[in-house]
Amino acid sequence: MKFLRGCKPKELPPSTGKKVSIIGAGPAGLGAAGDLACKGHEIVMYDQMPEAGGLLIFGIPDFRIPKSRIRNGIQELMDAGVEIHLNTKVGRDIDLEEIIQESDATLIATGTWRSRELNVEGKNLGGIHSAFDYIVDYHLWKYGYIDEKPERGIRALIVGGGLTAIDMCYIAREAGCQEIYLSYRRTREYAPAGRNEFNQLEKEGVTILELTQPLKFEGSGRVEKVVLGKNRLVKTGEGRPKPVPIEGETMTLEVDIVFLAIGEIPTPPFENGKYGILLNPDNTIYTDNEFRTTRRGVFAAGDVRTGPSLIGPALASGKNAARSIHNYLLTNEWPEELLRKQPTK
Ligand SMILES: Cc1cc2nc3c(=O)[nH]c(=O)nc-3n(C[C@H](O)[C@H](O)[C@H](O)COP(=O)(O)OP(=O)(O)OC[C@H]3O[C@@H](n4cnc5c(N)ncnc54)[C@H](O)[C@@H]3O)c2cc1C
């Protein structure tokens, strides 16, 4: 995958003397880095993981994106002088304020690295995992960054209807699960991942349980059973129909491992208002159309700005933010109304 666009590593324009720091080396951060390096700016990136690439490396399974393509694209960026500090979590290992002060512009592209929780009885039993965390750990193990293979089960239940749920089914199979069930609260035509992904999973032997959702997990210490409630869909006039529980209709499934994939939450490396940067109520970073935050010189792009999306939009977001950053470095202009914006109560 090509991140360096508009120049070649050995044919860079003269240095502008401006430094841009980028937090997060997923597609948004890498896309921005490639465009800004080709404008002659010095680029310094920070990422919490032991390898750059974000979900391109640690989220999406190999069969969808060959990792060599991502790694070649990142190597090309580094050949062009982009500096990447790995194993560096901003907010824990280095203060964001320090980075902002030392840079002419800063881009935050930290994605959505926290999972939504499911509030049902028994959710803390052993064997119940966040699918997102499991997938990241599985890739850490697979690429040799950790020694211990994440635990495997025999009968797995995956809960959700997005890409994380779908890919969790494939990874559960790869990890050794023999029977895989996918529970989704609507029907596949309303699933964020799309009907085709469900159809394909079915062909691969996954049992799809549409119109169901977990009501209770049971077991002594570790999950042994899940009680699934059945739903019907009610049209509301706007958006997707609402899943409504059918009273008294349940089914019980014996499982020994569960993966919850009911959505991810944006993870900016600070709390609302800290460093003068405001967040929206859904934890995305507040920006204007030019990717500018409420702090002069600080921009945001990718899923941390929009919520969970896809590779294409995240990459495009990084590139559009790069255009805006370059413009700021030339003009030093920042809208006063953004700087005056106050947190919403
Ligand atoms: C399991 C899964 C499967 C998916 N499958 C597909 C698919 O098939 N097709 C598709 O188009 N999209 C898919 N997506 C969505 C796609 O991966 C994302 O939309 C895209 O990666 C978002 O890019 P990003 O750069 O905004 O964030 P990310 O790719 O999440 O990158 C963010 C980076 O920021 C780093 N970071 C976070 N916090 C900090 C911090 N405090 N300090 C330093 N670094 C930090 C992270 O380590 C990460 O490297 C999938 C997502 C998941 C979870």
Query: Which hetero compounds are present in the coordinates?
Result: flavin-adenine dinucleotide
Structural class: alpha/beta
CATH topology of the largest domain: FAD/NAD(P)-binding domain
Shape: globular
Please list the strands of the largest sheet in the order they lie side by side. Answer: 3-2-1-4-15
Number of domains: 2
Order of helices and strands: EHEHHEHEEEHEHEHEEEEEEEHHH
CATH H-level superfamily of the largest domain: FAD/NAD(P)-binding domain
CATH architecture of the largest domain, by name, is 3-Layer(bba) Sandwich
Characterize the quaternary organization of these chains. single chain
Helix content: 25-40%
Largest sheet: 5 strands, parallel
Q: Average pLDDT value?
A: 96
User: First CA to last CA: what distance?
Assistant: 42 Å
The CATH class of the largest domain turns out to be Alpha Beta
What is the CA-atom radius of gyration, in angstroms?
Answer: 22 Å
Q: Per DSSP, what share of the residues sits in E-state strands of 2 or more residues?
A: 15-25%
Question: How many beta strands in the DSSP annotation?
Answer: 15
Low-pLDDT sequence parts: none
Distinct helical segment count: 10
